[in-house]
From TrEMBL:
Organism this protein belongs to: Nocardia jiangxiensis
Oxidoreductase recorded as keyword: yes
Enzyme Commission number(s) of this protein: 1.1.-.-
Keywords of the record: NAD, Oxidoreductase
InterPro entries for this protein: 6-PGluconate_DH-like_C_sf (IPR008927), 6PGD_dom2 (IPR013328), 6PGDH_NADP-bd (IPR006115), HIBADH-like_NADP-bd (IPR029154), HIBADH-related (IPR015815), NAD(P)-bd_dom_sf (IPR036291)
Keyword hit for Lipid metabolism: no
GO molecular function ontology, one term from the record: oxidoreductase activity
Similarity section: Belongs to the HIBADH-related family.
SUPFAM superfamilies (alphabetical): 6-phosphogluconate dehydrogenase C-terminal domain-like, NAD(P)-binding Rossmann-fold domains
EC class name: oxidoreductase
UniProt domain 3-hydroxyisobutyrate dehydrogenase-like NAD-binding: residue ranges: 169-276
Domain of life: Bacteria
Protein name according to UniProt: NAD(P)-dependent oxidoreductase
Length: 293
């Protein structure tokens, strides 16, 4: 079976898993669900899904199985435990883990699956519960091309973007790189709030401004358009653009640091950013960074 005739299993019906699975209810191939909480399963059965008491029962009926549980230990149990998927899965089944786990765990599980003729993909998601409810998640898939082709259609019901990141483990590594930016940005946001608060500003208004302008400009993702991090040559299309960005960034960072110095607010992220901005953009430090080095 191919396309939307493929029966899909879903294990884990929590805050993110449930809205993802709901978008599979109307697929012609059918949906089999499993969760430790009977009440979570009952809601799906009432809408036509089949219930499974264990991961093994899911694998008896589904050709593609999505897993949304908490951590590596739970994923291992679902895949290769006593009542796990591999105890009953037919050759050709594709197991997709949407949980963010170690890339090494993903590779190990893929090897276990392969010994049973089962394909494994690590397919972490980005977009949170809101993206799941809207059916607009981003999914980063690590696995073979054949496995990727099998999961694209069902994933498309709850994702607005499905990317084939590469071999098994690549999906997880892409998710971790994405989240590195996410949480580093949170730390930088906290630093910006401290500066604003010390300056007597309403930091809730600052938050409104940040969310408004990022929705227009794209935030940090707006500069993530090149296919390499190598230095940008002067004859490259991007050189003038990124040099301009560096100039604006260094100027504003230096001005913010000056305010922080006057108010005695430490701004370690801002100092790192000033020194690393130009190099990170591939055009090297500008005059302001050189002066303050």
């Amino acid at each position: 079976m191919t396309g939307n005739d493929t029966p899909v299993g879903f294990i884990g019906l929590g805050n993110i898993g449930a809205p993802m699975a709901k978008r599979l209810l109307d697929r012609p191939g059918g949906l089999v669900v499993c969760d430790m909480r009977a009440e979570a399963v009952e809601k799906f059965v009432a809408r036509g899904a089949k219930a499974a008491a264990t991961a093994a029962e899911v694998a008896e009926q589904a050709a593609v199985i999505s897993i949304v549980v908490v951590n590596d230990e739970q994923v291992r149990s679902v895949v290769s435990g006593p009542d796990g998927i591999l105890s009953t899965a037919r050759p050709g089944t594709v197991v997709a883990v949407h949980s963010t786990i170690s890339d090494e765990t993903a590779v190990q599980l893929a090897e276990e699956c392969a010994s049973h003729g089962v394909e494994f993909v690590d397919a972490p998601i980005s977009g949170g519960a809101g993206g799941a409810k809207e059916g607009n998640l981003a999914i980063m898939v690590g696995g073979t091309e054949a496995a990727y082709e099998k999961v694209r259609e069902p994933f498309g019901h709850f994702a607005g973007l499905v990317v084939h990141a590469g071999e098994v483990g690549a999906g997880t590594r892409m998710k971790l790189a994405r989240n590195l930016l996410h949480f580093v940005s949170f730390t930088a946001a906290a630093e910006a709030q401290r500066l604003a608060e010390a300056a007597g500003l309403d930091i809730t208004d600052l938050g409104k401004v940040v969310r408004h302008s990022d929705a227009i400009t794209g935030g940090a993702g707006a500069i993530m358009l090149r296919d390499t991090t190598a230095p940008v040559t002067e004859d490259d299309f991007w050189h003038s653009i990124l040099t301009h960005v560096r100039g604006l960034g260094e100027k504003d960072l230096a001005l913010a640091l000056a305010v922080g110095d006057r108010l005695e607010v430490p701004l370690p992220f801002a100092r790192l950013a000033l020194q690393g901005l130009g190099t990170g953009l591939g055009v090297g430090p500008g005059d302001i960074a050189k002066e303050q080095a």
